[in-house]
Specification:
The protein is an alpha/beta fold and 125 residues long. It has a single domain, classed as 3-Layer(aba) Sandwich (Rossmann fold), CATH 3.40.50. The chain has 5 helices and 5 strands, in the order βαβαβαβαβα. Strand 1, helix 1 and strand 2 form a beta-alpha-beta unit. The longest helix is centred in the N-terminal third of the chain and has 13 residues. The relative contact order is 0.17.
Amino acid sequence: MGTILVVDDDILVRRMVRRVLERVGHRVLEAGNGLDALDALESDWPDLVVTDVQMPRMNGLEFLIEARKRHPGLRVIAMSGSNGREGLKGVLMLARDLGATRTLEKPIQMSALLDAVAELTQRPS
């Protein structure tokens, strides 16, 4: 199993994702925004990042841009529950364009998250 950094400003979402990932054997790190996530990347190298898009201080898109500059091979699952169906699709497409490996809609379906995590932590970089 791998090390996964979960980035979300909603502590309840972070903790729920953490519990689900730990139950299947992953080591989980947490950050509440993109700036804290960048700090976490400098001190501990995760196999995968699961990040929300809409957060204060540094949102997930800004984090994605900066993280890709520093760590081009980093695998990232971006998730969002953006306002409105079309807005959501646009935000997730932008995340893909900026380098997200996968995107997921909120509210998160844990089975979809676990499938994506399993695929991305098993394949070589």
